[in-house]
Amino acid sequence: MSYEFYEEKTPPSVSWREARKAIRMGVSTPSLFSLPLLDGPLSAEVSDVPLMGTHHNERRITRLFKFKPDGCDSHGRPWKVGIFYEAPDDPYFQFEDLIGVVSTTGHLGCMMPGYHYIKPFVSALAARDMHFVVPVVAADDDIMIPFLRGRVLREALEQLAPPGVTWEWPPWPEDTFEPLTAGEVSAAVVTSVGDVRGCHYTEWPDRIRALKRGGRLEAALELLYECIEAAERDRGDREPAPWYTYEAAVIHRKRKEIDREVAVLQRWHHACPAAQRGPGAMQAKVTARLAAAHQLLQEGGSARSVSR
Predict the structure, then answer these.
(1) Distance (Å, rounded) from C-alpha 27 to C-alpha 249?
(2) 104: which DSSP letter?
(3) How far is CA 117 from the centre of its chain?
(4) Which of 22-36, 62-76, 144-158, 185-199 is least confident?
(5) Under 8 Å CB-to-CB from 231, ≥6 apart: which residues?
(6) From the CB of residue 184, how many other CB atoms can be counted at a distance below 10 Å?
(7) pLDDT per residue over 169-224, tens digit each?
């Protein structure tokens, strides 16, 4: 697939000042649609959605966040205005109905494939010269969209859709975001190379973070390794997504399992030689962590404090 489309994608002609205001207040205007994602009753249902393909767009992302942030969320993280648009299909990875995110510096990435079902809504807005604006948050050496999922998202769009905007939903997926019980093992049928427990592996970071916060490290590791396997299957001619490897390594360090930390980091390096890897801060962090873990292992596996 040629990525010239994304390289040449320009932001729409909108009032970015009004867009900032719409996101802050969670209120739509005649030309901008916004959900109350940062404050209000829906904010409790919001979770971070990582974007796909950000490692291809690092220069644009870096340039975007060099400017004064448009605001900060409740966690103090800076955000900039992003706008959804209908992105072309990716025949290589067989992703269809993609939703791209563009900002003042150009294309930033795409929502993960699990959000394909909102494309009819984005299309309906575009038909009435309206744009869906969202906050793009800088966090964990990457960017994310604080957004809704499942039935909550569907109900919010149906209730808050501007007058005159009509659309038809595609077959709606089951709500797969209910908390998993301790020790639950995946029983879902894998429907694509990137699926884990019925969802694309890019949909699991929030669940993994929640397991870590709750001290359920074994369950977090189990899910992380499933995602690592899916990322390896789904990588094509690129490196597997490194975030899952890094998070597994962090947990192994916490549990003083330095040999397993080295093993999971080496697994990522062996999966894709350096010459085939794209640029990215997380790729560099995996490499640096492997060197530090090797040093710890040579020193007897001591879990001394090492920069994370």
Answers:
(1) 41
(2) T
(3) 17
(4) 185-199
(5) 194, 201, 240, 241, 244
(6) 12
(7) 987 655 444 433 333 323 333 345 788 887 888 888 888 998 998 899 998 999 99
Token pair 């790729």 in the structure block, residue: 283
Contacts 24+ apart (CB under 8 A), 198-205: 198/174, 199/114, 200/112, 200/113, 200/114, 200/230, 201/226, 201/227, 201/230, 201/231, 201/234, 201/241, 201/244, 202/50, 202/52, 202/112, 202/113, 202/114, 202/241, 203/112, 203/114, 205/48, 205/50, 205/243
pLDDT at 202: 86
Q: Which domains does the chain have, with CATH numbers?
A: 4-160 (no CATH), 195-298 (1.25.40.10)
Q: Give the count of beta carbons closer than 10 Å to the beta carbon of residue 19.
A: 25
Residue 270: predicted pLDDT: 86
Structural contact between residues 161 and 205, judged by C-beta atoms closer than 8 angstroms: no
- Reading the block at residue 286, the tokens are 């995996």
* 79 beta partners: 71, 137
**Cα–Cα distance measured from residue 262 to residue 243, given in angstroms and rounded to the nearest whole number:** 15
Q: Which two tokens stand for residue 53?
A: 């393909």
Q: Catalogue the E-assigned strands of 1-124.
A: 32-33, 47-50, 71-72, 78-86, 99-103, 106-110
H-type alpha helices, the chain:
4-8, 16-25, 58-66, 119-127, 150-160, 205-213, 217-233, 243-254, 258-271, 281-298
Burial of 172 (0-12, 13-18, 19+ CB in 10 A): exposed
pTM: 0.60
Amino acid at 234: D
CA atoms within 13 A on the CB side of 55: 14
Q: Looking at residue 220, what is its pLDDT?
A: 92
The string of pLDDT tens digits covering residues 103-127 is 999 999 999 877 888 999 999 999 9
- How far, in Å, CA of 267 to CA of 269, rounded? 5
More confident residue, 306 or 59: 59
